[in-house]
Amino acid sequence: MNEEVSAFIENLNQPWQIEVSNRLRQMVHQSIPEVEERIQYKKPHFLKDGHYAAVISPSKDAIAFMIMNATGLAFPRGFEGPAERKWLKIREGDTPDYELLAKLVIQASSTL
């Protein structure tokens, strides 16, 4: 795991954001065993074979988890964005379905 990504997550303002970001990060690594991670555009990006697979994007009151290469996948309610990338905004107190997110990440990254 990339030290810059670890430092980025540990320096988030809210404890719940750190917890959610760490869970998302672990889920991505379990879903895409060969994933690479780095800080790009001031946020953690996850790549498979040099192509973007997922992004963790914190804001003041949410963590947006973006799944790239999403064209053609069926996303449940709550996801936003254009066909090629979808994101879910996670706010304090939300209980994201990490299993569902893992399945979507696996599907989206399978063609990268």
How would you describe the overall organization of this protein?
By secondary structure, the chain is of the alpha+beta class. The chain has one domain (3-109): Alpha-Beta Complex (Aspartate Aminotransferase, domain 1), CATH 3.90.1150.200. Helices cover 33% and strands 31% of the residues. It is built from three helices and six strands, in the order ααββββββα. It has a six-stranded antiparallel β-sheet. Helix 2 crosses helix 3 (98-109). The longest helix is centred in the first third of the chain and has 17 residues, at 15-31.
Short synopsis of the structure:
With 112 residues, the chain is α+β, with helices and mostly antiparallel strands. The chain has helices spanning 3-10, 15-31, 98-109; strands at residues 36-40, 43-48, 51-58, 62-68, 79-80, 85-91. α2 (15-31) packs across α3.
